[in-house]
Amino acid sequence: ALYLVLVICLTLFVALNLRKGSVARIPYIFLSIFFVIPLVFTYTRVAWLALAFILFVIGVYRFRKLLIISIVAVLLAYLFMPSFQDRISTLASVGAADSSSSWRLDLWSDMIVYIKANPWFGYGPGTASVFLEKNIPRLLTETEPHNDYLRIWLESGIFALLSYLWIFIDYLKR
Fold it and tell me: In sequence order, which residues have a C-beta less than 8 Å from that of residue 44 and are 6 or more positions away?
């Protein structure tokens, strides 16, 4: 879903930076709309929030019309798409037993138990899913950790996690 956000942003960037009234803008605008449709049906709230944030920033700083169109589109999706309403409403129910947030917190606490048992070198690639499968009845059917940092630590140990973090730190220092 986040790849779709990237593609949407790139096509919007091209469309918005072409000359106003240019016929060349039309395919890029349609492509952006075309890629938003599958993004909505991924039900990935992080990607939705990322796109909303990017559109908000672009709208506030440069293209006010885009901001208004985005707000109207989100309101229409919320009003006429029950599945969209359900996904948004689970964001607000952090403490509920069936919420996505509490499910992820349970998942991560289970991972931390395994990490504490072998923090230095981990258990090997792909083992996060194997360990999490033991908790499927409680964690529904998903066996992905939904946290790359914990996954790296569980599978490869603290040294791999520190190396992974160093890449970001080094990049930010430049």
Answer: 1, 2
